[in-house]
Amino acid sequence: MSVKQAAQAAFEAGLGGFAITDHLDLKAPGGDTRFAFDPAEQQMMIESVSKDFPIKILKGVEIGLQPENIDDIRIFLKDFEFDTVIASIHFVDGVDPYTGGYYEGKEEKQAYGRYLRLTYEMIRTYDDFDILGHFDYIARYAPYSKRSIRYKEYADELDSIFRFMIYNGKALEINTNTYRVRNGQSPVLDPDILKRYSQLGGELLTVGSDAHSPERFGEQFEHYMAFARQCGLRYVSYFEKRKPFPLKIEEFI
After folding, report:
1. Mean pLDDT of residues grouped by 10 in the chain (253 residues)?
2. Predicted local confidence at residue 28, as pLDDT
3. What one-character-per-residue DSSP string does the chain give?
4. Contact (CB, 8 A) for 218 and 10
5. Which of 3, 6, 35, 169 has the fewest Cβ atoms nearer than 10 Å?
């Protein structure tokens, strides 16, 4: 999907703006280069397309954190200015959960717990980001009968992540792509997770559709903003020049 197609889709969806956050997964297992991109080219295209649409198009990147690539990320990003940087975990112990192999031989508690502990380890190691992306990505492709991450079962892991984020001014993302139906079922966002984030003092929240195709721009935004408001969160934010701009959720629901 080109930047122009994305802008057209966002405009038709009634969005006031959006961020292009291309994946950057350096040292991906197996030498996979699908998740590398040229930030200079991306930013040039955004500047060009922005002239044709009355919406805000922000320059972003989604960095995939791994123990092996932290130094490479620092080197890669130092020469570019982004509006927003999302940090995500796409590979666990050299395996992408998307492929399914990660779950083999693991019960849910082991698979999910490892992912959440790695998330905490990685954001402490590399904290030059604005948003923690799809914190429950591990549940998206899981084969278990109950795929959702439930706060009561992972309270220690989630509390550690949230406390670090809140202290360091990071935003939590609700990624609506995680809750799409796959193979006849979908994970559910446990309200206790957002309630706990709010109780601990979390205020920075973003909502992203992780749209890789035009028809999915803004997918279920109103639903999940209303859901977040019911859980005690009052604002949804976007980042520009690495600074958060909170907006009242009531303005969108």
Report:
1. 89 89 86 72 93 95 95 91 96 89 95 98 98 96 92 99 99 90 78 98 93 76 94 98 97 82
2. 81
3. --HHHHHHHHHHTT-SEEEEEEEE-TT-GGG--TT---HHHHHHHHHHHHTT-SSEEEEEEEEE--TTTHHHHHHHHTT---SEEEEE---BTTB-GGGSGGGTT--HHHHHHHHHHHHHHHHHH----SEE--TTHHHHT--SSS-S--GGGSHHHHHHHHHHHHHTTPEEEEEGGGGS-BTTB-----HHHHHHHHHTT---EEEE---SSGGGTTTTHHHHHHHHHHTT--EEEEEETTEEEEEEGGGT-
4. yes
5. 169
Q: List the structure tokens of 184.
A: 């006849």
24, two tokens: 């950057």
Residue at token pair 């020049």: 241
**Confidence (pTM):** 0.94
- Domain 3-251, CATH 3.20.20.140 — does that match? yes
Residues 246/236, Cβ–Cβ less than 8 Å = yes
Between helix 221-230 and helix 191-199 the angle, nearest 10°, is 60
Q: Using alpha carbons only, what angle is made at residue 88 by residues 56 and 199, rounded to the nearest 5 degrees?
A: 85
Residue 227 makes CB contacts below 8 A (sequence gap 6+) with 174, 189, 191, 194
Ordered by start, the domain boundaries in the chain are 3-251
CA distances from 42 to 115, 119, 214, 240, 243 (A): 30, 27, 18, 16, 20
Q: Which residue has the tokens 């280069």?
A: 33
